[in-house]
Amino acid sequence: MLIYALKRLSIALLVAITVSLITFSMIYLSGDPAIALAGETATQQDIENIRKVYGYDQPIIVQYLSWLGHALQGNLGHSHYLKSEVSDVIFERLPVTMTLGACSLGFALVLSIPLGVLAAMRPNTLVDRFALTVAVIGQALPSFWFALIMIFFFGVALRWLPITGSASWTNFIMPSIALGYYVTPAVMRLTRAGMIEVLSSDYIRTARAKGLRPMVVLFKHALRNAIIPVVSLAAVQFGFMLGGSIVIETIFAINGLGQLAWESILRADLPMMQAIVLVLSCFYIVLTFLADLLNAFLDPRIRVS
Amino acid sequence: MFRKVILSTALAAAATLAVAPAAYAGKADDTLVWSTTREVAVADPYYNNTRELVIMGNTVWDGLLFRNLKTGEFEPLLATSYKWVDNTTIDFDLRTDVVFHDGSKFGPEDVVYTVNFVSNADNGVLTQANVKFLKSAEKTGPNSVRILLKEPFPAALAYFAQAVFMMPEGHYDSAPAGPDGKKDYAAVKAVGTGPYKIVNVVAGDRVEMVRNDAYFKNGPKGTAAIGKLTFRTIKEMNTQIAEMLTGGVDWIWDVPKDQAEKLGGMGNVTVTNAKTMRISYIAFDVDGDSGDAHFKDKRVREAVAHAINRKSIVENLVGPASVVIDSACHPDQFGCTQDVPKWNYDPAKSKALLKEAGLADGFTTDIYAYRQREFTEAVIGDLANVGIKANLKFMQYRALRDLVWKGVTPLHHMTWGSNSIPDVSASTGHFFSGGHDDPAKDPTVAKLMKEGDTSVDPAVRKAKYKEALSRISGELYWLPMFTYAKYYAYTSDLDFVPTSDEIPRFYTAKWK
Fold first, then answer.
1. Taking the alpha carbons of A123, A127, A132, A138 in that order, is the dihedral positive or negative?
2. Which residues are CB-neighbours of B92 under 8 A, at least 6 positions away?
3. ipTM > 0.85?
4. Is B361 exposed, middle or buried (0-12, 13-18, 19+ CB in 10 A)?
5. Is the overall model pTM greater than 0.95, yes or no?
6. Beta strands B510-511 and B494-495: pairing type?
7. Cα dist from B137 to A237, B116, B121, B148, whole Å
8. pLDDT band at residue A272, thresholds of 50, 70 and 90?
9. Maximum separation of any 2 CA atoms in chain A, in Å
10. Out of A33, A93, A167, closest to residue B21 by CB
């Protein structure tokens, strides 16, 4: 098991480094980083000077290997734009994004799992149709539009919630709903499908025949099995939220990692972009790994296999 | 490392959710919150080249001179007087009643240190365009300095007023060294002499400033009336507007025309359209380097010029403070005459010219752009009306400039802000001196610009610039389009006057 886990982690790290190399190349090839750094009024001579001072005159592979060498020693580099240690900036902004991701996932699970269970208990009824409608709306509604609607309703018209920033827990309510609602349909549908399948299985029939209380059958026997694929999906969605919170962070002016990633691409801040990709990839890998462990805990058959 | 991340994340998340400081803004809190879409990470006008730092540069720091916007004259600010000794030497006498925000006294040593530091290219100043004319400085007396220029540069006064800000002696000495051993000069805490001082920078989120109560009296900037200034980054314009409406933000700009008009109808928001120093232009591939040889033919360039309804774009998309320009510079810049060959909107004439050039059925080309997509789309529509199908290639500025320099763009629709420097040398001088941005590399124009840029006789400068600008417009190397105008929206509690150079003077604002 340990060897398997280590092998998986090694492969995953190689994937992260490969992604990092591709990202590095693509950002570099999409335009001269020195131009982005120098600003629009700089002349060619100014830009050449900046290229030299900031090390952009080195071949791209040399720049990348230099970064990788430092990264492997725990040094993620120095942001040319922010003028700070990359690791400091990431550790400063990651908590905000993690908080947003966790709140969003929490909202998504709280909404989608009960809805999925209810829909599975009463398939093709009004409850099921309501749950599916919630899912369809979640899939169809662009998150930025939903976010803006909430801002103007709860922020401007009713003035119940703060619109921007991350100063208090109330700042996270609207962004979490906007981000979380986007992943609700997938979780709800998976829960519903899993529960329908499990509820029609023999062991549930046996449990009912033994006279167990319906709630015990539902939550102890059925949901425990139906939730297994949801755990994997939730882990994947959490990783997705960390990387994909750019739009929500931008709209709500949340100073997190998503916004930092977007800005780093625009201004070709290569060390920063590299580090963000690496950190997010590592998170993604760890989350997937933890989901596998949790699944093994929930389903003994996985442990045996 | 992962453990560190988890721990720091958990602690910071707990702190984030537990602490709930109020967001102060407005007259009641004597805090003017202004917001833009760009983030500020480095509060140093030499190591950040955004418009936000141009504004903060003029708010937190002072130059030796001050540009009087009413008269257009350069007046002493940190200096008490100045004198051109020769074409490359300026002597300054300095004020004796100025202190920096850290309490140290301002003197000639600070000027010498600043000029010698920023003029050294090895120090990696990002705003090279603002300092490259400087050669060195030397102290000439207890309250006087001499500044030497690399070559005659009459526009230097504008830079001393708006871009060359004074730092205390030794300011950058405490800069930490990065992993590569290079000094990180931008990491040094901001210290200026200006009407406001920076007290807190949260990279990407906010910069907090408070009034400098020790600011010298009777200076041309006056005494700031508002106690606190906070700059906030809010990237989404709709969110900015929402914050404006709820009082979370007091001042925004770059509001799109339609939204500005709606905001103007609300009682608590003042909306103003004000001109800026930025201009819009279309450059032609005159040499055919891009592989599209259409624009080598002047008749085709004329056809494009006659096809575009610049007046309509100005009136319908940009705003009332915008004007059509015929010259390759901003009308407010010294030497920028509009008395040059003009190309009026005349689609019939455009079609006739295309027919004469053997292109009666029109042709297809690419047009590159990076800013205000809707403006370029209007151009594309006008071109389509005369049979020119222009495919839009819209991209990031750094990518586009790369392509422009490689000569692969048949048409590029660009803008230029001149760093708000009110002198033709900052616009036409940049583009038509034979460099990579020069679409024609016409030696006659380059020679004229050089003479205009380096002469210290205003009459000679004007004459040379007029000749150059006439040739640029006459040959249609560029089609100058219009000046940019910005919509400002601010709380009606605020007494604020927008200026024409896109540098809001918050130190002159006050609450009503």
1. negative
2. B64, B79, B81, B82, B111, B144, B145, B146, B147
3. no
4. exposed
5. no
6. antiparallel
7. 59, 6, 15, 6
8. confident
9. 84
10. A167
CB contact under 8 A, B126 and A40: no
Return the residue matching tokens 């105008």.
Answer: B485
Helices (H), chain A: 2-29, 33-38, 44-53, 60-72, 86-121, 126-140, 143-150, 173-199, 202-209, 214-215, 223-226, 228-244, 246-251, 257-266, 270-298, 300-304
pLDDT digits (tens, 9 = 90+) for B17-54: 444 344 567 888 999 999 999 888 889 999 988 889 99
> Residues with Cβ < 8 Å from B347, sequence gap 6 or more?
B306, B307, B382, B385, B386
Distance CA B340, CA B467 (A): 9
Question: Are the beta carbons of B239 and A151 separated by less than 8 Å?
Answer: yes
- Which of A83, A91, A164 shows the shortest C-beta gap to B47? A83
**Whether B432 contacts chain A with CB within 8 A:** no
Strands lying side by side in the sheet with B134-141: B79-86, B89-94, B144-149, B134-141
Are β-strands B411-416 and B363-369 bridged in parallel, bridged antiparallel, or unpaired? parallel
Residue A44 is nearest to which of B13, B19, B436, comparing CB atoms?
Answer: B436
Task: Please give the helix or strand (H or E) that residue B242 lies within, else none.
Answer: helix B237-246
Q: Shortest CB distance from A259 goes to which of B42, B204, B399?
A: B204
Closest CA to B296 of B305, B287, B304: B287
d(CA B423, CA B153): 11
Residues of A in contact with B399 (CB under 8 A): 30-31
CB contact under 8 A, A163 and B248: yes
CB contact under 8 A, B238 and A151: yes
**A contact test, residue of B183, B235, B370 with most A CBs within 10 A:** B235
